[in-house]
Amino acid sequence: MISALLFAGVGCSEEFLDEQPSEFLTAEQIGEAAEKNPAVVRGTMTGIYSLTVETGTGGTTNHDDFGQKGYDIYGDMLSGDMALSVSTYGWYRADITEFQAPQDFTRTRNYMVWRYYYRIIRSANTVIDALGGNEAVPELDENKFIMGQAKAIRAHSYFYLTQYFAKKYNPTAEILPIYDDLQDQNGPKVAMSEIYDFMERDLTDAISLLDGFARAGKNEINKSVAQGMLAYVLGSKGEWQQVYDLTNAVVNSGEFSIMSSEEVLGGFNDLNTSGWMWGIDLTADVGLGLVSWWGQVDRFTYSYAWAGDAKAIDSDLYAAIPDNDIRKQQFQAPTGGYADLMPLNKFYDPNRVIGGQAVVTTDYVYMRIAEMYLLKAEAAARLGMDADAQSALKTVLDERLDDASYVDGLSGGGLLDEIYLQTRIELWGEGKSYLAMKRNQATVTRGDNHLSFVGVGIPYDDERLTFEIPESEIQFNPFITDQNE
């Protein structure tokens, strides 16, 4: 449970790089207290998880400013897999679906993405500094586990920054500044290879620090989640053997099971679902409503999706789902109506009253075990291990199709294409399509239920898919003067 008190503890501040923002205890204060009482630093770490769902963390009052899931929508729409099929209120239309923000550094959406992830990074630095700094290994197990979580979520934020602010992996391109402690206020862009080295160190440390951690709930990052994060980082630069080893370790841990055919039609609304690895348990105390992921996507919530901004699966992607695949039933079949291809049977408040859920208590999913099977399949296929790739893919598809034996006849590029397609289908609306598009260096052509760029092929490294360093950063950080990589 995320309480309202924790939200107050990490409330919104206009300047996220203030030296000692009033909403935070100093690292020294936290560190001194944590030596005797780990609950102090644990509360700060819990506050970071709260930031991932809090509204306004992108520095605005916009109704698409609500933390990690807000930027998941950005990615799903930029990739083309999520269509804005009806637009009455205008959220996402110009800046995201018409690509205006990625082409204009003065647009607010660039600032929102930048501010949110660097705010998480600064918060993680507060915890890490309090526990002794980047090289420290705390003596108390509880503090060691907290350090592991902080390093993991810091790397997670840098990873999303590399994905959103760079067209592709280029080790020499200078794209972002690194801030690894609270004294680091402003800095120059550094090479992408340096950022990746930093993320990999953080996540390798996190995996070690989190060994033996029995988390209180799936709100917290554990070893398997950190391994999944590192698999995503390494996959984005093509380190496939390590991706295979990491995902294989997660699927063999026995912690999680693939969501059943019944569960994939069960609303994707409960953190306790067997196949969920990491997410947030939303309760009435959190106070989310219209300004939330559910308030943008779910027709059964008091939402824009109900009132006039329909979000739907891309029509071509829907057509690629076989009729005997249970996941086709997640979406409203096209009848010529407003709700065509909306995810009415994938994401929904259990009461299923259109516009009914005013206070959001349906949970957020951040990572599932199916992702690890699909990443394992992708890595195996790229390593020429077709049998392993087929087996991992079929483990997922056996819960979706009556007969997945067709996979046994695939190999090479055809097998990779199928894995990419199944990744897009399985993880639709979960914020992973953009990552998969870049990882597979794909070109996606929008179907006819989009409001713009229908039939236009847009490659993964198109300038229109990559955000710009925001105007405010260029104005106030003396070390950054331009957009050039």
UniProtKB/TrEMBL annotation:
Pfam families: SusD-like_3, SusD_RagB. It is found in: Cell outer membrane. One of its GO terms (cellular component) is cell outer membrane. It comes from the Bacteria. Keywords: Cell outer membrane, Membrane, Signal. Its main location: membrane. Residues 342-444 form the RagB/SusD domain. Coiled coil: none annotated. Residues 104-231 form the SusD-like N-terminal domain. InterPro entries: SusD-like_N, SusD_RagB_dom, TPR-like_helical_dom_sf. SUPFAM superfamilies: TPR-like. Belongs to the SusD family. This is RagB/SusD family nutrient uptake outer membrane protein. It comes from Christiangramia lutea. The lineage of its organism: Bacteria, Pseudomonadati, Bacteroidota, Flavobacteriia, Flavobacteriales.
